[in-house]
Every structure is written in structure tokens, then in C-alpha cells.
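Data availability (excerpt). The following record was deposited with the supplementary files.
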Amino acid sequence: MPEPLRMTAAAPPPPLKQRAVRAFAWSALQSWTVKAFTLGVFLLLARQLGPADLGLAQGVLVLLAFVAVLATQGYPPALVQQPDLQPEDVELPFALSLATALAGSAVLLLAAEPIARALGAPGAAPLLRAAAPIPPLAAASGVLVALHRRRLEFGAVARATLLAHLAGGLAALGLAWRGFGAGCLVGQALATAATLALLLWRRPVWQPRGRFARARFGRLSAYAGPAFAGQLLDFFAGRTIELVILSRHGLAVLGTYAVGAKLYLTLLELLAAALVEPALAALSRLAGERERLQRAYARLVFLAACTTAPLFVGVAALAPELCTLLFGPRWAGAETVARWLALLGAVQAVQYVNSATLGAAGRSATLLGINAAKLALGLAALAVTDAADAGGITLAFVLGQLAVAPLSFGLALRSTGLRLAALLRQLAPGLLAAAAAFALVALLRPLLEPGLAAATRLLLLGATYAGAVALLLAQTCGTRLRTEWADLAAAARPKERLA
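Predicted structure:
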């Protein structure tokens, strides 16, 4: 029999700090391994498929992502955040998610032709039918993933996710070898979802027993409702650009955008999995202790500004060489998309700490307001732009998203009680180092020989950027960075318990 969900352990658990750091480590290991593999698969597929095929697959995957948001209804983060969750509390969220996902699958099967015509991609109909099993598989996995994360058990999720993506990547390569075109990416998504569901339900941390806690369901829904609305708004705020490109410029331009956005999205997904989800789980335990929450928020902002933000800026600085080397010469124009989105990612790397902190404090309605502002400003920016290419549309989208940053930071400061001057001290070392290194690369690039190979240019410019960032960080905050990393490493080491 599968083991039922346990909210308390028989033996005293390790300290929260140690469990949180281990969760970060497991999450980062899983994320980097999975994303490195899936990025490698995408690189191979990008050299096999043309822009129209990639654009067609991207349109289908956007629709699947929308169905996935509808199916979760905001309950996974509510399950993570709920302070005294009981096994029966999971029953109704699980049933609702699965029922919604099954309804979405039925729509994909029965209305594939009209949906494909609405997307302006008649060839999408068979792909939509093939993708119909994905939503219920994802919904069945989502609840178990949330329960593992609630308990800071990221190792189980890491192993299952890694194996699932390995299966999906191999399926995609096999389909590409057989000449399935856009179906490669849909087949990859299907194989990944099926493998993850199989692995998680083989020995589930919880199983449905038909005991519904209706009285407590309202409390879960009070958090899940605004979270769900926020996820919908966040989806449209982030994916509207793809719908605009598809409607205005067609599949080929959408394919170019998808290639240019791949590095940005890979890093962003890594950030969400390796930082935000563990941070939400750990910070939720500090929600009632404002002083500790404030200190944790300041440390996370500092570390994000000194590590993840320079990584995004580095991708922006090296976008021409990266896109040429990774994707090949046929994807001209993708480097402009990559540069603008990577600069946006540098800001989002820190903003994600705001989201995790507000979510941990139970401020789901506040997150809803932020996402509504992102959507409104993003739509306004896309509506006024007259850009005729993917790069110009991307720039308008980025400006709309950046306009929300002051609101996000202001609300996080209000929630934690941290002062603006203290926040700027956390941000300044990392962001200024990245900006100076970006400028140095821009000045150096025209001095290189025009005929120099892309790999050589990337090596020279990349070393220049990394060296400049490392030198500036060592000069401005080296001691603190070493202290923070040593503290995290010490917290991650298991401590012997007295007999």
C-alpha cells in the first residue's frame, strides 16, 4: 500500500535552515541537469526543423500551457503554503484539477479543427489531438509535486523529473529521425508528462481515499482563488507576445521568436525551480516572524543580484555569438530577441524573490494585482508598437514588463518592512558589476577580427565578461559573498544527532 501523506515526522526533523538549503541544492541540481539536457535536445531539433515547423509546435505548446494553468486552479501553491494541511484537505483540490484537465482534453480532441483555424495554423489539428492526454497526466502529477515541495523533499521530485525529461528528449529525437516535424516537440511533452506521472504515482506520498474536508476547503480556496487568477494573468502577460506574433506575422516569425527566447526561458525556468519554489516553501515557515522574514528577503535579493542577474546580463551581452554557435546561421534575428529578453530576465531574477516573499506571507491578492498590472502594461506596449519583426515586438514587450518592477519591489518592501536604502545596498554590487561588464563586451566586440570564428569570439568575449564581473564583485562585496556561501554550505551539511 502507498504511504499516506504525513504532515509530521516521528523523529525530530533537521533545522529549517538546513532543510531549506538542501532543498535549494536538490532543486538546483535537478533544474540544471534537466535543462541542460532539454536545451541540448532543442539545439539538435532547431538544426533539423525550419522556422514554420518550430512555430507550429510553439503554438500548440502555448495552448497546452494555458490548459495546464486552468487545471491547477491555484491549488498547488495553496497546498504548499497551508500551515496545518491534513491528508483529507488534498482530496477536493485533486479531484477538481483532474476533472478540469479531463475537460480540457475533451475540448482538444473534439474541437481540434476550429482551434487550429483560430490559431491560424490548420496543421495544428492532429498535434492538438495527439497532445490531449497531457493535461490530465500533468494534473495528476502536480498535486504530488506540491506535497513533496511542501515537505522540502526536493530529491524525489528531482529524480522523477530528470528521468521524465530524459524519456521526453529521447522520444523527440526518435520522432525527428523519423521525420515527424513539429510533432517532435509535442511527442516530447507527451512522453515527459507520462513518465513523470508514472514515477510519482508508483510510490505516492499521498493517495485519494474519498474523504473530502469540505469545511477546510474554503480556507484553501481563499488562497488558491487569487493565486489562480494571478497565474492566469501571469500566463497572458508572458505569452501574449507569442499570440501577437502568430496573428501578425505567422508561424515562421513565431519560430524565430521561439528560438531567440529559448535561452531566456531556460534560465527563467531554472530560476523558478531552483530559487522561487524552494524559497516559497522555506519562507512560508517565517510568515509570522517579520524580522526573520525581512533578513531572509534581504539575503535572497543580495544573492540573486550577485549571481542570477549577472548570468542573464551575460547572455544578453553574448547573444550574437551564442545564437550563431548554438542554433546555426538560419536563425538570423533570434539574437535580438535573446538580448532583450535576457535583460528583462536580469530584473526578473530579483523580482522572483519578491513573488516568493509575498506568496510566503499569504499575500496572493497582492500577487494578483502585480500580475494584472503586468498584463495591462504588456498589452498596452504591444498595442502601440508598429514593429514589423520579432526583435521590435520583443523590445516593446520587455518595456511593458519592466514598468511593473517598481510596484513589485514597493509591495515587497512594505510586506517585509525593509527600507528602500537597504534594498538598494543589496542590489547595487551585482547589478552594477553586470552593467559594467556588459558595456566592456560591447566596446570590445568591434575590435575583434570580422572573420573570427563564432566559438573563438564567444570564448574571448565570455572570458572578458566573466572576469570583469568576478573582479568587480570581489572588490565591492567579496567578503560578504564568501560569508553567505560558507553559511549556506554549513547549513547544507548534515549534523550529527545526540543518541
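Summary of structural features: The chain has a mean pLDDT of 84.
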